[in-house]
Amino acid sequence: MVSPSSSSSGFFSLCVxxxxxxxxxxSGNSEGDVLYALRKSxxxxxxxxxxxxxxxxxxxxxxxxxxxxxxxxxxxxxxxxNLSGHLVPDLGKLEHLQYLExxxxxxxxxIPPELG
Length: 116
Fold this sequence. Notes:
Elements: H1 4-27, H2 30-41, E1 42-43, E2 65-67, E3 73-77, E4 84-86, E5 99-101, E6 106-108
Parallel strand pairs: 3-5, 4-6
Antiparallel strand pairs: 1-4, 2-3
EC number: 2.7.10.1
Subcellular location: Membrane
Pfam family, one: LRRNT_2
């Protein structure tokens, strides 16, 4: 028979593990949230950004996005995509971003200082 203390300990461990997973899930798509904010700020008549779904766990599966081995966004390739609009300051939150290609689009305004 299982003692009440070992049963409680197992239940507590399970709760802690679930809490950790929930926190990771909730914060795990912050890069996706940033990119989705960019998507919303742009006009995309050719549906180039159609795969940018904020409900997915990681933007690493989206077209035009490259991630490193730790699943952090390192590259956004949107050159020659017929996009118009403006950049969002939240792009500065992509801490691992190395390349942001936007040539041959109609993106207006200044480069947000948050991009460094």
